[in-house]
Write a structure and sequence with these properties.
The chain is of the alpha/beta class and 546 residues long. Helices cover 30% and strands 15% of the residues. Bound molecules: ligand NA7. Its cofactor is FAD.
């Protein structure tokens, strides 16, 4: 790299997933000098790291793309829910189409950053010790880039192959004919389990909480059908995303489940169920995630559907408990294809960790409290992430008050607009804390936040402003709003990454903006329309503006 070019960067973008490439392209287009530093060996973010067997997206192909530059015109997905390999091809396509590669530095992890108040620039240090000094730091690190590996006794002694799902070897691992163990039944675990069950010699699943999984509804997408869709409705679908609660092409039903007759409700449930995807969750009556009584109706429907597919009563009891493990939809339901059928296979064992916890990992496998040693060749840790905040707090980013972000958020997260945080000037983050992250289609959330950030930087430049930082008061107010919005619903009744409850010792609090995309967009717009209300803006004396 040309050293001087890197020293005078207007913006350093961290991460080359959807958000990173959006920012690179849009900022470059407006004449900013920008680079992406990406820790992985390729583009794609989540789809670079998550290459475990069966990894695929849970958003329909039509909404899982960037709307900018009419990229969709020359791209076709082959399946309704594309897998990681096809998603990587999509990133490759975008990279070539927009000529992004020349400004992306791969295999480069950021380890620390400190803002220099004399120059209004960040000093950002990479793992190899290189330091760059961008005006703006844009963290496009996603919500799931810090894997969580439970602290099992003996984990390092295991003699087979053991990998976290998000650190699955890029070379792949042969699971056919092997004794496979999977710990965790979140979205990743469910995908890995349904892929392993049919091919492994034996599959042992270690489950702590039953996943209230719903049918994916996968199918091939014909090229002709897709071309027709592009001519007719795809542009509308892409715009529609930003008008719905979760950034999907369908929306929550704005009425109570009890406003309709039980018959109408049942027929509607059946209809949503048959559509596959998240219709039954993100297209539900508005009170399903708000009112326990409405939630009970949805859970009962879900349970009947699951029970029909499981043969053994013991399996039924563990996978579809009579008492719901948490209100339906307050924890991310997985989307599955043959998940429940896997448990009808004779080569599959399901351990309920509440009844029979893991005691230790041995050289041969996993030992449970009942004394059994489950022998394995491959152990997959589908144990999730220090989600939402971990992607940012794993970088040593020092505030202007000397407090690292890890410590600042250690007692609870506070942000302004889910995009910035006090004492960290000229730093933006996307698809992270206090944004619609957990309840949104990634590209939708990213386009809302990204367009705001790009406009903000353009305006600062035209007004000669070199520093922007939210006030503590604005941050406090926004953080109260986040808590208020979450408190009206049942979200806190589930232990999950939505609230940090999945990580031992992490403060349990709402980590997401739960008011939906349109509400969130409105807040961003109001802020910008009122001269970046809640921020203090300043200009470095004598500094040449970017
Ligand atoms: P998740 O959804 O956080 O799932 C992690 C799973 O691992 C979940 O079933 C956990 O059980 C289980 N887990 C975590 N720690 C342990 C320990 N110590 N012992 C046993 N089991 C454990 O992560 P995913 O990767 O599946 O999905 C993350 C998101 O990516 C997903 O929501 C989508 O948005 C895409 P628990 O449920 O906490 O009892």
């Amino acid at each position: 790299e040309d050293a001087s070019e890197l020293q005078n960067l207007d913006a350093l973008v961290v991460g080359a997933g959807f958000s990173g490439i959006y920012h690179l392209h849009q900022l470059r287009k407006r004449g900013f000098s920008v680079k992406i530093f990406e820790a992985g060996g390729g583009l794609g973010g989540t789809w670079y790291w998550n290459c475990y067997p069966g990894a695929r997206v849970d958003s329909d192909f039509s909404i899982y793309q960037l709307a900018m530059e009419d990229l969709w015109k020359d791209w076709n997905y082959s399946e309704r829910f594309p897998d990681w390999e096809e998603l990587r091809e999509y990133f490759h396509y975008v990279e070539e189409k927009l000529n992004l590669g020349r400004d992306i530095v791969l295999n480069t992890r950021i380890v620390s950053a400190e803002f220099n108040t004399n120059t209004d620039r960040w000093a950002v240090t990479t793992q190899r010790g290189a330091v760059v000094h961008p005006r703006f730091l844009v963290l496009c690190t996603g919500f799931a880039s810090k894997p969580h590996i439970p602290n099992y006794k003996g984990l390092a002694t295991f003699e087979g192959e053991c990998h976290h799902t998000a650190r699955w070897p890029q070379r792949g691992v042969e699971i056919k004919g092997k004794r496979v163990g999977v710990i965790g039944t979140g979205a990743s675990g469910v995908q890995m389990i349904q892929e392993s069950g049919p091919v492994a010699s034996h599959l042992t699943v270690f489950q702590r909480t039953a996943n209230l999984a719903m049918p994916l509804g996968q199918h091939k997408v014909d090229k002709k059908v897709q071309e027709k869709m592009k001519e007719e409705i795809l542009p509308s679908i892409l715009r529609r995303r930003l008008q719905t609660f979760a950034g999907f092409h369908f929306d929550i039903i704005p009425k109570s489940l009890f406003d309709v007759t039980p018959e109408e409700c049942l027929l509607l449930f059946e209809d949503q169920w048959s559509k596959g995807g998240f219709h039954f969750w993100l297209g539900a009556f508005e009170d399903v995630t708000r009112d326990q009584r409405a939630n009970d109706v949805a859970y009962k429907f879900w349970r009947n559907k699951a029970m029909e597919r499981i043969n053994d009563p013991e399996m039924q009891r563990k996978l579809a408990p009579a008492v719901q493990p948490h209100p339906f939809g307050t924890k991310r339901p997985a989307l599955e294809q043959k998940y429940f059928e896997v448990y009808n296979q004779p080569n599959v064992t399901l351990i309920d960790l509440n009844e029979n916890p893991i005691v230790e990992i041995t050289p041969k496998g996993v030992k449970t409290q009942d004394g059994a040693e489950h022998e394995l060749d491959i152990l997959a840790l589908a144990t999730g992430f220090d989600a939402v905040t971990g992607s940012i707090t794993q970088i040593d980013i020092k505030g202007t008050n000397g407090v690292p972000i890890r410590d600042k958020w250690g007692g609870g997260v506070s942000t302004y607009l889910g995009i910035t945080t006090a004492n960290h000037p000229n730093m933006f983050f996307t698809y992270g804390p206090h944004a619609p992250t957990a309840f949104s289609n990634g590209p939708s959330c990213i386009e809302v936040q990204g367009s705001w950030i790009v406009d903000c930087l353009s305006r600062l430049r035209s007004e000669g402003i070199t520093r922007i930082v939210p006030t503590q008061a604005a941050e406090d107010e926004y953080t109260i709003l986040i808590k208020g919005l979450a408190s009206t619903h049942l979200w806190n009744r589930a232990k999950s990454w939505y609230t940090g409850a999945n990580i031992p010792g992490k403060v349990v609090e709402p980590l997401n903006f739960t008011g939906g995309i349109p509400h969130y967009s409105r807040l961003l717009k109001e802020c910008a329309d009122h001269g970046f209300h809640g921020f203090s803006l300043s200009t470095q004396k004598g500094s040449e503006t970017t």
